[in-house]
Amino acid sequence: MTRVLVVEDDPDLSLALRTLLTRAGYEVAHADNGREGLRLLFAERPALMLLDIGLPQLNGWEVLERTRDLSDLPVLLLTARGAETDRVRGLRAGADDYLPKPFGNDELLARVEALLRRTAPTRWAGDSFDDGLRLVPERRSAVWQGHEARLSDIEYRLLQVLVRNRGRVITTDQLLDRVWDDPEGTGRERVKFAVLRLRRKLRQAAGDEAADPLEAVRGLGYRYRADGGDEGPAPDEDESPF
């Protein structure tokens, strides 16, 4: 049975959501504050999360940020805030869909079904990949070929985005939007330098100058190679990070 996590502090709405989803055939876990929501996220490993923004202890933005450190779990934001700026903020922060309150039962179920239908099985940050990479969210680090590389927050988020899109080229502008929240594309050189520093740390951790799974694709962007190959830097890279 597909498990859905509902993080909502309004008792009437949370009861209605649990009843609706249970009748639709889902197994439902519920938290009424952000901290409990994160605990259940670890414990239950749901297939999807319905997340309110106005939560006690940790608000929805904080829960969403920490969720994205842990997994690519599909997240549907539920909030009374219907302003375009809030919708844009939610989507840029990593939410997959956004549904302002009040909403109809049929629309909610349709959005839940659509998200589950179009998303691949969730990858969790603590999982190991078949090429020997493991992300360690609690330490903001990566274990690569058996050795740990300590990363900055930016380097960790950069690696997360590339890993979640393994095999696909992610453009510089897309990385600015997803890692730096810089949709206007200013300061594009920062992506190049951050990738260079990240690649260097992975190589140093492995003790092999050729061993890193990242690749610069000339004129397009960067990608995480699904095979974690041993190609060296792309010919247009400048090895100096400064």
Automatic annotation (TrEMBL):
Protein name: DNA-binding response regulator
Transcription regulation is among the record's keywords: yes
4-aspartylphosphate modification, residue list: 52
GO MF annotations in UniProt: phosphorelay response regulator activity; transcription cis-regulatory region binding
GO CC annotation terms, alphabetical: cytosol; protein-DNA complex
Residue ranges of domain Response regulatory in the record: 3-116
Organism: Streptomyces klenkii
PROSITE patterns tied to this protein: OMPR_PHOB, RESPONSE_REGULATORY
Residue intervals of the OmpR/PhoB-type domain: 124-226
Protein's UniProt keywords contain DNA-binding: yes
GO terms classed as biological process: regulation of DNA-templated transcription
Start-end of DNA-binding region: 124-226
Entry keyword set: DNA-binding, Phosphoprotein, Transcription, Transcription regulation, Two-component regulatory system
